[in-house]
Design a protein that fits this description.
By secondary structure, the chain is an alpha+beta fold. The protein has a single domain, classed as Beta Polymerase, domain 2 (2-Layer Sandwich), CATH 3.30.460. It is 48% helix and 17% strand. It is built from 12 helices and 9 strands. A 9-stranded mixed β-sheet has the order 3-4-5-2-1-9-7-8-6, sandwiched between helices. The chain is globular. The N terminus is likely disordered.
């Protein structure tokens, strides 16, 4: 574990953070305006300051998930600036200082019983941190069809008062739910639309509603209210949409065209990974950083976001225990939808 002196602490007041968020909502990331650059620096510090509590929750999540099943997928990430701005625009009354998922950790488990067991373990725990909110999207999915269970905690510690009150979101998913979310984000990347936020082409949104409800039936979960009533009708609608959109062919083509560029020849032993995906060029660049280089990683993260705001693409700074775990936790950046295609084939066979 890295020395505590290397962690980044908040350097701005919450009021300054909220004002910076408001400025970027009005101007976006790309404009070459001094005030925008200063606002980005404020937001990057606020985002980066979540790294210490996020690491604390991620380690606890890894331990608890491993007690439920063998080889869970566990990873963490700091929210992308474009995603922060998009969320503030969708929810005008929201303040950035109160956004609950600036830092997020994810656990992917085999089945819904495992997810429920893990959630119950958190319910029974006597953690000093405050459970600030929870959503069972597995049984009450979002409008997009997204499913999973979210737990939001406020960090509490007398030893680290500078991080007190920062919120961290834990996402608990089944592997099938994770595959669905991966496909949604991959298609959204190529369309240049936020399908996961229910924004974009209606035909693709409708397809993912159908297949998400089909997956839900397999897992014994309720379907959404706006899909065909019977299993037979739902499968027929899913088949028709998949055929019309050429879903399988397009997803396979996305992954086949990707070239992965690793700026570190040897990634073993690194802690943080900066992924920069340029779908138009079919290129994913990976930069790796060791524990003590968090400040460098977060600085490069912001620079990459500024660059891709002009050239097009997506970037994210994540932490994982290995590159292979990283591929499994964030397959959308590798345009890897093989698990989704396999599950869809099984559903429609």
């Amino acid at each position: 574990m890295m020395s505590s002196s290397k962690w980044i602490a908040p350097s701005c007041t919450r009021g300054e953070v909220d004002r910076a968020g408001g400025l970027l909502v009005r101007n976006g990331v790309a404009p070459d305006v001094l005030a925008v650059g200063q606002a980005l620096d404020v937001i990057n510090n606020w985002r980066s300051s979540h790294s210490f509590p996020l690491n604390t929750f991620q380690m606890a999540l890894r331990k608890r998930a491993s007690s439920v099943c063998e080889h869970p997928i566990v990873a963490q990430r700091l929210k992308r600036v474009p995603s922060i701005i998009g969320k503030l625009r969708r929810f005008p009354s929201m303040k950035l200082s109160r956004m609950q998922d600036v830092g997020g950790a994810r656990a992917v488990l085999p089945c819904i019983d495992d997810v429920d067991e893990l959630r119950e373990a958190y319910r029974r725990s006597r953690a000093k941190h405050e459970l600030a909110g929870q959503k069972d999207y597995a049984r009450e999915p979002k409008a997009s069809g997204y499913r999973g269970i979210h737990l939001v905690y406020r960090y509490r510690s007398d030893k680290k008062p500078q991080y007190r009150g920062l919120q961290i979101e834990l996402q608990l998913r089944t592997r099938r739910q994770h595959a669905w979310a991966t496909a949604v984000e991959t298609v959204g990347t190529f369309l240049g639309q936020s399908l996961k936020s229910s924004e974009g082409r209606r035909d693709w949104l409708r397809f993912f509603e159908f297949v998400g409800s089909g997956f839900a039936r397999v897992e014994g979960l309720p379907v959404t209210s706006n899909v065909p009533d019977t299993p037979e009708a739902l499968l027929a609608a899913t088949r028709a949409a998949a055929r019309r959109l050429q879903v399988k062919e397009k997803l396979q083509a996305y992954g086949a065209a990707l070239q992965v560029t690793e700026r570190q020849k040897e990634l073993r032993g690194h802690r943080y990974f900066l992924l920069a995906l340029q779908p138009a060029r079919g290129v994913l660049t990976i930069r790796a950083y060791r524990d003590w280089a968090l400040a460098d990683a977060t600085r490069d993260y912001l620079q990459e976001e500024k660059s891709l705001a002009v050239t097009g693409g997506e970037t994210v700074l994540v932490s994982s225990d290995s590159l292979e775990s990283l591929r499994r936790a964030y397959p959308n950046y590798f345009l890897d939808t093989r698990t989704f295609v396999e599950e869809m084939d099984s559903l429609l066979s």
